[in-house]
Amino acid sequence: MIIDAHCHVWPDHIAATVLAGRPADLDARHDGTIAGLTRTMDVAGIDRGSPRSLRVLLDAVPGLRVIACHFGGYHRLDEAEDLLVGSRAVLETSWPPSTAGLDPARIREIIARHGAGRVVYGSDWPMTDPAAEIAAIRALGLPPEDEAAILGDNLATLLGIL
Question: Is 41:48 a contact under the CB 8 Å cutoff?
Fold first, then answer.
């Protein structure tokens, strides 16, 4: 199994514009679109990540530490909620274009069911504005200790710096 841990993809209508700006001062080798990514991954034999494949990995490798970006499934929140909430994965909060676009009651419920101690803040910069994403977490109305844990304490603990 081959799993690619780092890809960049943009909506079709902006991919060419973004790449024309040479992000990180690099020339792109592909078109930066979702269709382009999936086509390239299929040709290379790379498995596409999904909440289901992440759950299989977690079940197969005891003790594996995983931070699951986008609550475990970007644009697959239903599947991620069914398969990953309550697992030992650490869920990360980014959801471009903004976490504020998600139903706050649903996010509070996900955090409550998963445990605030296993959720970490992520901005997904440059796709989002970190200040707006922090505000979205604060707007959830979580207990202060849960908010502090999600916004930094949990990741600091996971990384061994707290």
Answer: yes
**Three-state secondary structure readout of 18-78:** HHHCCHHHCCCCCCCCHHHHHHHHHHHCCECCCHHHHHHHHHHCCCCCCEECHHHCCCCHH
| In a domain? residue 5 | no
Considering only CA atoms, which of 58, 30, 42, 31 is closest in space to residue 4?
A: 42
- Domain range for residue 29? 12-44
User: How far, in Å, CA of 154 to CA of 108, rounded?
Assistant: 17
Q: How many domains is the chain partitioned into structurally?
A: 2
pTM beyond cutoff 0.70: yes
| Torsion sign over Cα 64, 70, 75, 78 | positive
Whether residue 86 lies inside any domain: the answer is: yes
Q: In this structure, are strands 67-68 and 119-120 parallel, antiparallel, or unpaired?
A: unpaired
Asked whether residue 98 falls in the same domain as residue 26, the answer is no
Query: pLDDT tens across 6-42, in order?
Result: 678 888 898 899 888 887 777 888 888 888 888 888 8
- Determine the Cα–Cα distance for residues 71 and 157; give it in Å rounded to an integer: 19
